[in-house]
């Protein structure tokens, strides 16, 4: 344990752009959703050739990627999480795991990085993944996963032959409430009821630490709405802005039904009812309810939550939450209005129900501005 922590205690890498990355002007350099993959032609020794169908959150349109080889190593594996633009896959036959960037539309020669096998069979319903860097092929990049309710598991893809498992005090919720903070160099997660926060700091801690979450204020809403929210399924998500602001988001989803003329329930579906956003005070570390996050927009799905500046990606809606789960939509935090999407050709169950972070395009823009 001590050896593991000492090896990852060095300064974690900042944003790096892969030299092999290739940018296509016709493809979205913004957060996108993978809708489907279509096989093109006959498979080769290295894998099958595919085209990806994508939904671009910036233009709100669907488009197709160029042809690329889908690596054989991940053929048939289950996609279980996404972080920093990378997707984690797990084998249906054993506990082998892989990281791949094949779903980034601007990558022409995708990579596959093998991760150590887990010491237990993963519960695929519990899938949380977070990376400390956008370059998992670097020695100082750490991958954290939640495949078991009782453990937070971490490893360095290119240095560790096994996972290091940290036992948690309380079970973790299955949603994407595992997040890496670049500001604090730590992984964060919430307790089941959202009353406590757990953290694993990679620079000076040898165990998980906990603190009680302190809410400074709550929204002024009618008692009837609070009663409605009590009936909803609520997930919790930590997210950090590019400048280091820390937010805590509560996502409420409830069941709605359709009745026939005889007042009999014909169908039931799940719908997003409300979001609550809390901003952390840097000095007190308290969480204060807000309806204004300015130019920022938050992306929530079954991958790691992330936050971007809307002005960096013209077309994105500021002060909004883009979500995947119980539909695809954009929730305006100030007004509470919802703009739903139904991309043409969307399958009933998307093969990768998470937003992919546009890590490489952002780094490219930043590097260009610095060079200028």
Automatic annotation (TrEMBL):
> Which Pfam families does the annotation name?
Beta-prop_KIB1-4
- Do you know which InterPro entries this protein is assigned to? F-box_BR-signaling, KIB1-4_b-propeller
Q: Which superkingdom is the protein from?
A: Eukaryota
Q: Where is the KIB1-4 beta-propeller domain?
A: 67-331
Spell out the protein name for this chain: Uncharacterized protein LOC104761063
